[in-house]
């Protein structure tokens, strides 16, 4: 199978007040105070915050949080809160596509139209184009006005409707342009090819086998 280079990036992370399994932390080493100072100096207590973990081998040297999980609700950030993954999700999406390709459920050369027959230009956009951000599909987060609805809870089909009728930015395969939309389409392809919803597929095929109990 050909090698595909997958590009991912981090979107801003939002903490959710969900408790995750807490790793064992060593007794405080001499450097703990400096770790704490670095974190609190970078993230003020009344501003959006961060969680930090410093480990040496299997031993956790420092684990702490500074700042707010929710400015709106006034919730301070805690080390055991779970973060939304943002675009880190893309690596799981790409892995799932390659798993399905290996199993013969799809090919990287398959046109998008095989899975979404009514999608505009679906005959010229391939799975590989979507994986490598070379499809020309407009990035929906760049569509004017989209950010105003960014916190709305909508399904995959509704999200696809946000950008499906936008003209291609360039011919598929012509060049690279980062596109969140491409990975939304890949999520839809995973559901079509596997017969399972995206969350269930990722849970059963990736998280559970790897013991990722808090993902």
TrEMBL record:
It comes from the Bacteria. Keywords: Signal. It comes from Candidatus Kutchimonas denitrificans. Residues 46-214 form the Beta-lactamase-related domain. Residues 1-20 form the signal peptide. Coiled coil: none annotated. This is Beta-lactamase family protein.
